[in-house]
Amino acid sequence: MVDIFITKAKKADSKIACNILRRSIIEVCQKDHNGNQALLAIWLENKTVNNVAKWFAADNSLSLIAALNGNKVGVGMVNNAGIINLCYLLPEALHQGVGKALLKSMIKYAIETDLDSVFVTSTATGKKFYERNGFGYNGESEKYRGIYGYPLVLNLKPSS
């Protein structure tokens, strides 16, 4: 049985969350950087324990940690404008419902904040995950710091 538990991230989670981010980018997002060490260095540059602690302390967002069978394996963050800034998993946590549980928690927060939509700029690796969870295109893909980003949106309220 798979046991998934989502909790609000604390400063004490910064080190494990940083590890999750870095491993996910290096191991899961390989098709985004294709092993290009220069691109990878740019992408990982701000993924430090100190930065993660600052992100978790921000009062304009919700930061989450996902645990699978008692092990912390995922990190998510959505801000008060509905922008998903983080949704990363360790490779061993993929395809077990952890990402979906993280995403649902961020969407719930956006609904409780009375937002109309949730936005994400996805990597190529994550794009199909977001599409499977109801996100649609929200503009043309753009290259940022050498990595293509795909703007996606999930409307939370029916359009009138």
Determine the structural class based on helices, strands and strand pairing.
alpha+beta
> Overall 3D geometry?
globular
What would the average pLDDT be, to the nearest integer? 93
For this structure, what is the CATH class? Alpha Beta
For the largest beta-sheet, the strand count, sense and barrel status come to: 8 strands, mixed
State the fourth-level CATH superfamily. Gcn5-related N-acetyltransferase (GNAT)
List keywords for this structure.
single chain, 160 residues, alpha+beta, Aminopeptidase, 8-stranded mixed beta sheet, 8 strands, globular
Write the layout of secondary structure elements.
Blueprint: E1 4-8, H1 14-28, H2 30-33, H3 37-44, H4 49-57, E2 61-68, E3 71-79, E4 83-89, H5 98-112, E5 117-122, H6 124-132, E6 136-137, E7 142-144, E8 147-155
Parallel strand pairs: 4-5
Antiparallel strand pairs: 1-2, 2-3, 3-4, 5-8, 6-8, 7-8
Structure write-up:
This protein is of the alpha+beta class and 160 residues long. The protein has a single domain, classed as Gcn5-related N-acetyltransferase (GNAT) (Aminopeptidase, 3-Layer(aba) Sandwich), CATH 3.40.630.30. The chain has six helices and eight strands. Strands 1, 2, 3, 4, 5, 6, 7 and 8 form an eight-stranded mixed sheet that branches. Strand 2 and strand 3 form a beta hairpin. The model has no long low-confidence stretch (mean pLDDT 93).
